[in-house]
Amino acid sequence: MLEEVPMGGWAPAVVPPAVAAALYVLALRRTAGVAAAGVAVVTVAVAVTALALGERPGPVAGATLLTAGCAAVAWALGRSGRRRRARRLALEAYRAAAGAAAEAAGEVERHRLAAELHDTAAHRFTGIVVGAASALRLADPDLQARAVRDAAETARLAEGELERLTGVRAPGGGAQDERPGPRDLADLDALVAAWPDPRVTYVRTARSAPPEIAAVAYRVVREALTNALRYAEGGTVRVAVEQAADRLVITLVDGPTTTQDAAQPSDDSTSRHSGTTPVPGPDETAATSRDARTPPLPSAVGRSPGLAGAGTAAGLGGRRDVEGLGGGHGLAGLRVAVAECGGVLSAGPEGAGWAVRAEFPLQDAPSAPVPSASAPSVSVPSALAPSVPALSASAASPPGPAAVVPAALPLSVSAPPVSAPPVPGRWGGWRGGPASNGALVLFAVAWSVGFSLLADDVPLSAGEVALLAVLFVAHALPLAVRARAPLPGLAAALSVHPVLLAAWFAGWTTQPAGDFFLWCLWVELTLLYAVGVQGGRRWRPGAAATATVAAAGGLVLACGPGIVGDRAAAGAVLASGLAVPAAAAWALGVGVARLRARRRTATRDEQVRLSREAEAAVRAERARLEARLRSSALRRMGAVLAAAERGRLDVVLAEARAGLAALRESLDELRSPVVGDDPPPTFAGIALLATRHQAAVRYAGGRREASPGVEVAAFTAVELMLRGRTGAEITVTGDGAGTAVRGPASPRAVRRLRALADAAGGGFTAHEDGTVTVWLPET
Q1: Do residues 507 and 569 both lie within one domain?
Q2: 162 and 633 in contact (C-beta within 8 Å)?
């Protein structure tokens, strides 16, 4: 009968292998949590069954330990197979999409160039059209002369911007303009100073901001002012740049003219600043008037409601000319740029007008001074003032084109560096590689202690069991560091055998040290394999470790009770025999290391090739835009400059209109998709996903290379986070150990992200703000 069969007879031979096979399949096909639950259920079931059969506590504990150990190894092998399968499928997807990676990089560059064109040439042409149309409509000689001068200055700036955008020179032009883009809040002052709209009132109380934030703030103000110039008929446009605690707040509101605005004298020279509202500093007590630098404007160019209406409607068809250039791309792009700086941009109706607000975090920024009665912060209107070349040149030059990033690296628009935050779930917890090492430790302890408890021939005392348990655990623990420190781990494991031998000689245990060495020799062989994997071509450490294992084993076995005669000779013979499996384990590790090195080299070469193809695609897009700009926008801008120099404002308007039409065609072409609905699963594909979803992707801790498996997994994570969303914010944190992706996720996406992290051997963390983090370790 089954109940008459002793546990030591059938359980070790039947139950553990059957459980191991079932749990291996479970760990291979399901997540770590499900497989771990299976391990727990089976282990408890074995223990309950043994107790029900009336076995003594020792054999029950031994059977339970053996079952847990075998189950843990089966779980670890299944997890390893699951990770290998995920990496293999990811590598296949990476290689299958290699052809589309260059196209994706090219499309990302097209969108970047479109944004640059929108933020530079389109704004310049718009200003020229609005100013020229207004001046021609009002038929004021002074205003027309001013418009001609502004058009000439704007055309020169635009030519330099277009040259920098494509890295070319204007047709027949001279040297490229190498002036830096806006890097300080003072550039906002000059921007408003030269703005062709008399309705603008401007105040700045913020002292400074980091250059990256100042550049984006410049773009926000310029885009909002341009939109107000196009669409806001009449009324006022109020711009405020303020610092509230540790945040920079930019507000632009347009709306109907108030009683206070209407009552303001139009010819009061003290109210017509260039837009520069000085920030009171320690030694500053008063605002500086624009009149100290430029003569006052004629009264006809004051705050005339007719001029405001003409400016916004662009007079002779000007408004019709500038419509259709944005299509929502300007504010959408700004939302992304602001989010990449860690800020928030909002735009919408406010009362009878429209408001645009942007907030940026300021780290380590000086506190904004508190306005005092002696040094008030004054809200001053901008006027259609003569351009001040020094100011206009510095303020109007946008940042140069972003550097071309290889396809193997993340592609993103420029953003301020973000310090890498701590990554929750790093190393994957009990789902990743360290858990496999822990499973080996458990198996080693269960293997030695379990069989000792199952032995019925020699009962063990409680003290002997405690001593052996300590030594067995000490011998197994080095497996936990086999990947990071195999040589010290091997030395620690070997040190247990002399201690056990001494305990046997002292009579503290009946367990022969030689029997334990043979029974647990697989631990040393596993560590020798790890030495070979880590050492690679370095043969001396591996050869020394192999000889040490053989010598230690020969010594322990020669001192055993079964050896008679010359123990030294016996030890030498035994050591020679042990050297064979030891050398084989080390050689296997060396072979695996060389195979992995060849695979890494092949993968790196493939990534370099894709990077070069991406660079070539980017250069091709820039060359194509260069040719188009030469024949359209640059030629038209040169014609505008020539007409302005001749004083022909009507020709200036006509050429500017033609330039706007050409830009509209260029923008439509650049924004048209090239890659299909499925971007390649690479970092370049992430940049394309962000562009299509108007999302902000920030790279914390710098941009680093990643293996194809991590690239594909990171792309999948971003794709799941962005599915069905626009304007989301994603943070990618990379270092040598892996990549973390943080962003919002729907409940359905959460389930798939958990499975993705599990298959990669990584971790998943849900945060209180509704975002999640997926950790993808390198292997």
Answers
A1: yes
A2: yes
